[in-house]
Design goal:
alpha/beta; OB fold (Dihydrolipoamide Acetyltransferase, E2P); Rossmann fold; Ribonucleotide Reductase Protein R1, domain 1; 5-stranded mixed β-barrel; 13 strands; 25% strand; globular; zinc; NA-bd_OB-fold
């Protein structure tokens, strides 16, 4: 028996990396009975007669997991949003950040294609960068032709399992190809008629890049807060967490309650207006969510 890491799942096979060798394995029937599906990122015990004939025997407890994309044990999320084509969308970025924070995964924000915008738009991106850096996030303004920004992204990857997230067309695959040209991950031109990129990545796979693992995924196909409860939402806004103990009421939702420290920080400019506005939108969304039975 050996221990390894699932780096790819495809057509019922699991590809397990162990000390530089990849073993093609099947899951044991016991997983189906327990309704457990091995995921990319899982640390597993397996037995293999040859590199093509192995069986996964057990799965170590996961630190975290996503349903879509199906992946586990993620250390970091590289969230890519573009300055243009598609235009920068702070609401979508905050949605990604909440989903990542809910899993206690460290985000790294990359604003791509900054070489394709006017000076005015570039200044806007610098303003957004400052807003998120003031919260404590790492933010990189990037273009694939700028080796310095690509090196900066690469420096965050060592010894970590990173999932790359962002809407279609923002340049996720282009960034990975710039970091490691051997990957040659398919990229697709943005469909002008749809105004968005086509999905070019069809399965989850971990690539060994820059001393770590990076998952090129079919994207976060579900950006709904299906698992998140209302009282957990503010925990996904670090700038709220920093002051919310000073709220008068325990369990303050920072909405209609008096003597709320979050609203005081908003009034003094310590909390960005756009972040608070998006928080209220997410509160409404979760409050109006249809119950699941």
């Amino acid at each position: 028996m050996a221990t390894g890491k699932i780096i790819k799942a495809l057509s019922g096979f699991y590809y397990v990396l162990q000390e530089g060798t990849v073993y093609q394995c099947r899951g044991r029937g016991i997983f189906r009975k327990r309704k457990v599906t091995p995921l990319v990122g899982d640390i597993v015990d397996f037995k293999a007669e040859t590199v093509d004939e192995g069986y996964i025997l057990s799965i170590e407890e996961r630190r975290n997991e996503f349903v879509r994309p199906p992946i586990s044990n993620v250390d970091q999320a590289l969230i890519v949003t573009s300055a243009v084509h598609p235009d920068f969308n702070s609401l979508l970025l905050d949605r990604f950040l909440v989903l990542v924070e809910a899993k206690r995964i460290e985000p790294l924000v990359v604003i791509s294609k900054v070489d394709q915008v006017s000076e005015h738009v570039l200044q806007e991106m610098e303003t957004h960068k400052k807003i998120y850096e003031n919260i404590g996030y790492s933010v990189i303004l990037s273009s694939v032709n700028d080796s310095q920004s690509i090196d900066h992204i690469q420096s965050h990857l060592a010894n970590r399992t990173t999932v790359i997230a962002g809407q279609s067309g923002v340049g996720k695959s282009s960034i990975l190809n710039s970091i490691d040209p051997r990957l040659a991950i398919d990229t697709d031109e943005i469909s002008e008629s749809l105004g968005r990129g086509k999905h070019t990545t069809r399965h989850v796979e971990l690539y060994e890049i820059a001393g770590g693992f990076v998952a090129d995924t079919p994207g976060f196909s579900s950006l709904e807060f299906g698992e998140l409860e209302l009282d957990q939402l503010s925990e996904c806004f670090p700038e709220f967490v920093a002051v919310q103990d000073e709220c008068k009421f325990r369990g303050c939702l920072h909405n209609k309650e008096p003597k709320c420290a979050v609203k005081s920080s908003l009034a003094s400019g310590e909390i960005a207006e756009q972040r608070y506005k998006h928080y209220l939108q997410f509160v409404d969304e979760i409050s109006n969510r249809k119950p699941r039975y």
